Amino acid sequence: MRGVDDDGEDLERLLGAGLRPTRQRLAVMRTIRLGGRRHLTPESFHCELAAIGLRLSLATVYNTLNHLTDAGLLRRVGFGDRTWYCTNAAEHHHFFDEQSERLIDIEGEQPEVSGIPAPPEGMAILGVEVIIRVRRRP
């Protein structure tokens, strides 16, 4: 098991993604790694970072999460007017719990989507995101 202070993996992942390993990016990557798989909002992650003593502006958190996403280290998932950053960068789909407003990874076999139309002229399909809305039964 890796130690809490093992930042070598974070450094390698940033360099491998073509990102400069700034102090802020390393701190964010370490916090993401130690927190395990989850779905972050910039605001909740900003609070998480502040709670462990990392004082970054909310703008820096947004920018860093976007840079990590653009580099393929996170996935951006938009639903309604909210955006989450999924720490599982592999292709997968989600459940959305309407009561808790949480995203949950769909594990194992993924839903299949058929009948996808051709994109408009000059455009390419980047992916298909399936989000299944769920609610606890009464």
Can you tag this structure with a few keywords?
Arc Repressor Mutant, subunit A; single chain; 33% helix; 138 residues; alpha+beta; three-stranded antiparallel sheet; 6 strands
DSSP E strands, number:
6
Radius of gyration over C-alpha positions, nearest whole angstrom: 17 Å
In the CATH scheme, the class would be: Mainly Alpha
* Number of helices in the DSSP assignment: 4
Going by helix content, strand content and strand pairing, the class is alpha+beta
- The SSE order reads HHEHHEEEEE
* Order of strands across the main sheet: 1-3-2
The CATH architecture is Orthogonal Bundle
Characterise the protein shown here.
With 138 residues, the protein is α+β, with helices and mostly antiparallel strands. It has a single domain, classed as Winged helix-like DNA-binding domain superfamily/Winged helix DNA-binding domain (Arc Repressor Mutant, subunit A, Orthogonal Bundle). 33% of the residues lie in helices and 17% in strands. Strand 2 (75-79) and strand 3 form a beta hairpin. The chain is globular. The chain starts with 7 loop residues before the first helix and ends with a strand. The model has no long low-confidence stretch (mean pLDDT 92).
